[in-house]
Amino acid sequence: MKMVLKRVPRLVHVHAIGDAEMIRSLADQENSRPFALYTEHGDLLPGQQRVCIESLPGSCPTVTVTFYLDGDSLKILGDS
Question: How far lies 38's CA from each of 20, 24, 27, 35, in Å?
Fold first, then answer.
């Protein structure tokens, strides 16, 4: 599977833990939108909390994505 790193849309549907329903969130400025990891088909990977991009001189840029393990959309298999 190929993955794509891109900015989230300006208008996003957000469902926080404990919220009864989704809310809409607008980015204040075009460049203030965060990056997120998507599938090659354009689906946002669930549970992303943070995306860190590091680019050091003389090396290939790296991306670290932190996921929230909620046990529903993202769970650990193999543990009993």
Answer: 26, 20, 19, 10
